[in-house]
Specification:
The complex is a heterodimer of chains A (195) and B (243). Chain A is mainly α and 195 residues long. Chain A has 10 helices and no strands. In chain A, helix 4 packs across helix 10, helix 5 runs antiparallel to helix 7 and helix 7 packs across helix 8. The radius of gyration of chain A is 17 Å and the shape is globular. By secondary structure, chain B is mostly helical. Chain B folds into 2 domains: 100 residues, no CATH class; 85 residues, no CATH class. In chain B, helix 5 runs antiparallel to helix 6. Classes of the chains: A mainly alpha (195), B mainly alpha (243). The interface between A and B is large, with 59 and 70 residues.
Chain lengths: 195, 243
């Protein structure tokens, strides 16, 4: 166990760091498309129609391709850091305190993979569910933050908030499921090169 | 933002906001601390006085970070939208104190949004990397730094793939899945190729993520950038005078 914990602190290969950083940058770069999609569909939340599946696909690819116990967490952390620096996306992502909070889905994917390692390229549904459930858990944590900001009384009295939050979480879940499936399809289409 | 198709797809991938030009008055550590402080105040403040003082503090913070108030109207717009939505939801439950409720929500979200955006707007990546050097593991720091450096290249690659596939009319024919994979697959193939090349070049230069590296102070880079900017302005003025 001690050896495993020590392994999390460092990367084994330089190639792994490079791939994690590039996939993180790529997922974070997707935030720029939110401006474009928001201009096309000016309804709150529809800006992330491309960004959410794309970023989830990047995390799934990172989890499958990088041989490191915390690959998805690190990729997600890098994604959030890149999002903080780039324009676009919701204001919540521009706060540095939200970076660890938003990396929860990466942690959950890593935890699942730690206890039940499976070939994500072969199982599209599993990848989709992994992306969807972990993403929804992250969103629920953000909802908890909203509960803290608004206050307990208002949060429970204004019952309508629950309805909209439900739609919000469901939309995220569906888009992240698509992202997981997309990631799995990409992994299957581009086989790992073994030299 | 209104969609203007005449401007083209590339117009919406504008990087001009990413490059930090003006120097903030306060250092990165103080800005980070103040951002976290305002976050706590937004959560803990429960009356008009404390939240109002926090909002004034946020405006001063904005001035210290960005030296101007541009963009604040967008924040006010989004905060007003959220407050009005909350009011509509709260009306059936507690209509007696609804104005007080909306006022508090407005101030809370303003403090939270404004401090976050002020921090993000004044954030210079190298400054952040220099600050976290020695605090977080070197390998993670290297990964973050590398990611930030590769953002423009990846954007260029994405636009290139998009243009090539558009020229082949890949987004016009076929099913939705085919159209998506027409962009995704070539892009990820390119990404893996770049990763291989970068890893090889770093390895050949004996760069190790575990070893300490020299970090150039951000002040030095900013001074150089400002000098280049001034020289560019001077040369453009000189060319205008010649014309």
């Amino acid at each position: 166990m001690c050896i495993e914990i020590r392994q999390i602190g460092k990367f084994v290969k330089l190639k792994d760091i490079v791939l994690a950083s590039l996939l993180g940058a790529c997922g974070g770069l997707g935030i720029l498309t939110t401006n474009f999609f928001h201009a096309m569909i000016p309804i709150p939340g529809f800006g992330a129609l491309f960004f959410l599946p794309f970023s989830t696909a990047c995390i799934i690819i990172a989890r499958s391709r990088i041989d490191h116990p915390a690959a998805a967490t690190i990729t997600k952390l890098i994604q959030q850091t890149v999002i903080l620096m780039l324009p676009g996306g919701p204001t919540v992502t521009k706060n540095p305190i939200m970076i660890p909070l938003m990396s929860l889905d990466g942690v959950l994917i890593d935890l699942y993979y730690r206890f039940k390692p499976s070939d994500l390229a072969e199982s599209k549904i599993l990848s989709g569910l992994l992306g969807s459930i972990s993403g929804s858990a992250g969103i629920l944590l953000q909802t908890g933050l909203l509960y803290l900001i608004i206050g307990a009384d208002q949060f429970f009295l204004a019952k309508g908030v629950r309805f909209f939050l439900g739609i919000f979480v469901a939309m995220h879940g569906i888009l992240r499921f698509c992202g997981g499936v997309m990631g799995s399809a990409i992994l299957k289409a581009i086989p790992r090169r073994v030299v | 933002m209104r969609l203007n198709l005449k401007k083209g797809f590339n117009h919406y991938f504008n990087f001009s906001n990413c490059y930090f030009v003006d120097r903030p008055v306060i250092s990165f550590a103080i800005r980070l601390f103040l951002c976290l402080l305002f976050f706590m105040l937004a959560i803990r403040g429960n009356n008009f006085f404390s939240l109002g003082m926090s909002a004034i503090g946020c405006l001063i913070f904005r001035l210290l970070c960005c030296r101007h108030f541009s963009g604040i109207e967008l924040e006010l717009k989004s905060v007003t939208f959220i407050s009005l939505a909350a009011m509509l939801l709260a009306l059936p439950t507690h209509s007696s104190s609804v104005l007080e409720f909306v006022g508090l929500i407005f101030l809370r979200f303003f403090v939270f949004f404004s401090s976050s955006i002020s921090f993000a707007k004044s954030l210079y990546p190298r400054e952040a990397v220099c600050f976290f050097h020695g605090i977080i593991p070197l390998s993670l720091l290297m990964a973050v730094e590398m990611a930030l450096r590769f953002v423009p290249l990846l954007a260029k690659e994405a636009i290139e793939v998009f243009s090539i596939q558009k020229a082949r009319s890949a987004f016009v024919r076929g099913t939705f899945k085919m159209r998506i994979s027409a962009f995704m697959l070539p892009f990820f193939v390119r990404l893996f190729r770049i990763a291989d090349r970068v890893a090889f070049s770093l390895k050949s230069r004996k760069i190790s993520p575990e070893k300490n590296r020299i970090v150039v102070p951000p002040e030095m880079i900013l001074t150089t950038l400002n000098l280049i900017k001034e020289q560019n302005i001077m040369s453009s003025n000189a060319s205008k005078n010649q014309d």
